[in-house]
Amino acid sequence: MKKYIRVCLLVLLGSCNSAFASEWGPWTEVKEIYITTSGAVFVTVNSIPGCYNNQGAYLSGSNVDRAYSTLLAAYMAKKRIRPLYNINSASTGWGMCTITSFFVRD
Question: 27, 38, 49, 70: which sits with the fewest CB atoms below 10 Å from its CB?
Answer without folding.
Answer: 38
